[in-house]
């Protein structure tokens, strides 16, 4: 690390599960009780960054341990109704990733995780595939929640196009909820 430290996915998972308890008590519980639609971004589920993968993330937290943490029990028992994810192609090449990053990060300071290309491509693959659906199916089954509807958007689309696509999806969600 440029800051004299190393990443630790286990401590990140422990911190994140505490946040999820707080988020549930402050926001999600009252929204659920009022039977509201809850749309979250991919930041809802940082498991993609934390759960162990023998080849790509050997120091990550084991999936079973992640799902058994108190905050994650609450989160998977009370997930959002919808998650929106913007991601790159499943098999994104290093060159294409770096080119897009070069175009979009002008003037922005990057953290250690953002600078780790292999890590970013690994995490993107989890977001781009059905890995997250599998995690939610397992976690919600364990903790009594309903798997959220996950909608994906192409990172290569313009900001304007992505906003239009998200707006259209929200319209569909609202129309469906009113019928």
Largest sheet: 3 strands, parallel
Give the radius of gyration: 17 Å
Arithmetic mean pLDDT: 90
Number of strands: 3
Spatial ordering of strands, largest sheet: 1-2-3
Shape: globular
Helix and strand run: HEHHHEHHHHEH
Describe this structure in words.
The chain has helices spanning 9-33, 47-50, 63-68, 70-77, 94-104, 112-115, 117-128, 131-143, 159-178, and strands spanning 39-41, 82-87, 149-154. The protein has 179 residues and is mostly helical. Strands 1-2-3 form a three-stranded parallel β-sheet, sandwiched between helices. Helix 1 (9-33) runs parallel beside helix 4 (70-77). The longest helix is centred in the first third of the chain and has 25 residues, at 9-33. It starts with 8 loop residues before the first helix and ends with a helix.
Short note summarizing the structure:
With 179 residues, the chain is mostly helical.
């Amino acid at each position: 690390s440029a800051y004299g430290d190393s990443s630790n996915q286990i401590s990140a998972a422990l911190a994140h599960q505490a946040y999820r308890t707080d988020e549930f008590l402050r926001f999600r519980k009252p929204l659920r009780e009022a039977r509201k639609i809850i749309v979250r971004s991919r930041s809802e589920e940082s498991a993609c960054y934390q759960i162990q993968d023998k080849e790509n993330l050997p120091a990550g937290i084991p999936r079973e341990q992640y799902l058994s943490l108190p905050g994650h029990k609450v989160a998977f028992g009370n997930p959002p109704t919808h998650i929106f994810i913007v991601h790159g192609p499943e098999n994104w090449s290093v060159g294409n990733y770096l080119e897009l990053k070069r175009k979009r990060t002008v003037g922005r300071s990057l953290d250690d995780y953002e600078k780790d290309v292999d890590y970013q491509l690994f995490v993107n693959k989890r977001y781009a595939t059905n890995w997250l659906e599998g995690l939610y199916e397992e976690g919600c089954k364990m903790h009594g929640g309903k798997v959220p509807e996950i909608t994906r958007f192409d990172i290569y689309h313009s900001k304007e196009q992505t906003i239009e696509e998200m707006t259209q999806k929200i319209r569909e969600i609202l129309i469906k909820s009113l019928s």
